[in-house]
Amino acid sequence: MSSTESPSVSAASVLPRVAPVRVGEGERLRSVSLPGVTLTVRSRPPAREGLPPALYVHGLGGSSQNWSALMAGLDGVVDGEAVDLPGFGDSPPPDDGDYSVTGHARAVIRHLDAAGRGPVHLFGNSLGGAVATRVAAVRPDLARTLTLVSPALPELRVQRTAVPTGLLAVPGIAALFTRFTREWTAEQRVRGVTALCYGDPGRVSPEAFQLAVEELERRLQLPYFWDAMARSARGIVDAYTLGGQHGLWRQAERVLAPTLLVYGGRDQLVGFRMARRAARAFRDSRLLTLPDAGHVAMMEYPEVVATAVRELLRETGDPVGGGAAGAGAGS
Prior knowledge:
- Helices cover 41% and strands 16% of the residues.
- The chain is α/β, with parallel strands linked by helices.
- The relative contact order is 0.15.
- It has a nine-stranded mixed sheet, with helices on both faces.
- Pfam families: Abhydrolase_6.
């Protein structure tokens, strides 16, 4: 493994240069070259030595930036890193074009193995929740605890508002949608995504909205943007249809790590009704329900989620995180 300032695999060498990814205050980015994939990793310098490691995995269409608020909220509790999954954020596509849940999980495992950071406190949202579940199930040695925010686990009755996202998995739909929305501005697109993902879009500050617009404008210049979206959506649909030992619910039952589940009452993509099923499936689970939150509670209510994570670490007896949690809970 090598860590550099820019991607070095073959897929990256042919990509056009676009505007740089925004790095928030206190954050840094690095590019990690692994077999078959290059990942961009966002991190914050640890507040002190010896903090337990954490890894954050974003959802479909997202990036490591989705975790910036929660990462800042857990400063002094964990030594956090957030990855851009292959084809998202500033990570180039995987060499083999595999955007399945298993393919994304393989990339996460390769990163953790190469970095030697495991076991980590593992976080996942939406698609990242499915990826994190698979990682924790097949490699229990890598997951210290598991925190899942609206994880994309199979539903028999998908919400009507989630259907357009699922349709991206249908061959040709992404290209059709691209042509149909050619005249849409990045601002219009971000406004639509915000309305879909937030319980209350009004919680997005004007500054955060503008940053999201700038990031989308950057990513729309990437020739693989829609392909990564469509293939990853197809990967979720395929994972929903798998049965047996490879089924996500079966793998959830195999997870040994203490698990925090976070569900939003206004989530338009993952049914709130799935919260109880998930709490039963994960053997050592605790459930946080936020009636006013949408699909990205860690962005909408980062302080509340951070408090629940501190409690998880305190309950599970993390020797460092538990102490920090006790100090931070009253702040």
